[in-house]
Amino acid sequence: MTVIPVDIAGRPYEVRIGSGLLADVAGQCGTRLRKPHVPIVTDANVHAAWGAVVEASLRAAGKQALWRILPPGEATKSWEHLSATVDWLLGHEVERGDHILALGGGVIGDLTGFAAAILKRGCHFIQLPTTLLAQVDSSVGGKTAINTPAGKNLVGAFHQPALVLADLDALATLPARELASGYAEVVKYGLIDDPAFFAWCEAHGRAVLAGDANARAHAVATSVAAKARIVAQDEFETTGMRALLNLGHTFGHALEAETGFSNRLLHGEGVALGMVLAARFSARRGLMGEAEAERIAAHIASVGLPADVRALGLNVSGGQLAAHMLHDKKVDAGRLAFLLMRGIGQTFLTKDVSLAEVSDFLADELKG
Ligand code: NAD
Ligand code: GLY
Fold first, then answer.
1. pLDDT by residue (tens digit) across 271-294?
2. CA-CA to 247 of 20 to 30 Å: which in 164, 185, 268, 285?
3. Ligand 2: distance of its center to the CA of 141 in Å?
């Protein structure tokens, strides 16, 4: 097992990465589970795959799982499910000193974390991430949220978990498309500030997706260490440091919005294509070489992730696609904030990008 500390001032916690953590969830959580009944929020897919394993561990420790099983999918991050889940927790008389378990991907982690943030003005929660995306990104750092009709993740709170248990075994039951989608966030850490890790991804990315245990452990641990370092320096995204984690997300978000936040384009797929677009846009501005931008595109394509916006078959203009960016949370006093690259591992934040410039670029990408 690898243990990565997240050194948030006053509220440090551990991310434990390894095999068999869900089968030993009671032992891993230890005295944090202080009552005989343990509230666990999950979704139906994860419950079917891992519910019995978690329950057996709790039972062996003399505890009983109280399940809240939500529908799988992004639509679950809603006011309706948040409010019903908070009522359910209140109904079970969960106290501030108790720990709520979040067993699932980013949807369950984000919703449960937000419920924990507002329940009795804040109680503890433990992340049990079961997707690659959740293990390398969403379970660490304390961003919690739901979606509203106005957009994704627009209502939420910063609320750090008390512990994260990333069980690599959970990835065995994850659909291949979800695995690849999460892998985009792994590549992101290489592109942000670690060119050696990007080169490692080029050499071992396919092994990660194929199930190589050592490659998966290295990919998750390196990603979590990078995220922990960034989050510890800029917990509330005020200095620009944490914003680097949004590489590919502005373009990706526009594509997700255009495809209706649906199965047509998963979040990680949008991020993958978004990182390629950020690289090509950076090359067009003369910030990085075209060959380097195409090296990024080639790696993304080599693992089956989208690297060409034309393949989405969108019936949209560059201007319409760019207009979605105005709803990005990073818009500040009407100015877009963009993450561009001076090279692989040299990502930086700029506000010096106009919507017209992005529209022209996207129009060219859509034409090919
Ligand atoms: P998800 O939670 O919807 O999970 C993807 C699918 O996989 C679901 O159908 C789920 O039921 C299924 N699944 C999960 N684990 C499984 C397993 N082990 N075996 C079989 N099936 C399994 O999606 P996700 O990609 O994990 O998360 C996406 C969400 O994360 C988005 O809402 C996004 O906004 C959020 N996010 C949050 C942060 C953050 O910092 N808080 C960062 C990135 C993304
Ligand atoms: N996933 C971006 C962040 O945690 O800041």
1. 999 999 999 999 999 999 999 999
2. 164
3. 7
pLDDT for res 77: 97
Pick from 340, 361, 362: which is nearest to 350 by CA?
340
For a pocket test of ligand 1, which of 8, 78, 103, 133 has the largest count of ligand atoms closer than 8 A to its C-beta?
Answer: 133
CATH topology of domain 188-367: Dehydroquinate synthase-like, alpha domain (1.20.1090)
Instruction: Please name which of 68, 52, 1 lies closest in space to residue 28, comparing C-alpha atoms.
Output: 1
Give the Å distance between the CA of 104 and the centre of ligand 1: 7
Q: How many Cα neighbours within 13 Å face the side chain of 129?
A: 29
How far apart (Å, rounded) are the C-alpha atoms in residues 253 and 155? 16
Question: Which residues are CB-neighbours of 315 under 8 A, at least 6 positions away?
Answer: none
Domain residues of the chain, as ranges?
2-173, 188-367
28-70 pLDDT, tens per residue?
Answer: 999 999 999 999 999 999 999 999 999 999 999 999 999 999 9
Residue closest via CA to ligand 1's atom 33 equals 106
Q: Pick the atom of ligand 2 nearest to 140's CA.
A: 4
CATH 3.30.540.10 for domain 2-173: no
Query: Which residues are CB-contacts of 221 (< 8 A; sequence separation ≥ 6)?
Result: 2, 4, 17
Residue in 107, 135, 245 to alter for ligand 2 test, most ligand atoms within 8 A of Cβ? 245
Separation of CA 147 and ligand 1 centre (Å): 14
Angle at 15 between CA 6 and CA 344, to 5 degrees: 70
E strand or H helix at 40: strand 37-43
- β-strand partners of 38: 65
The atom of ligand 2 lying closest to the CA of 142 is: 4
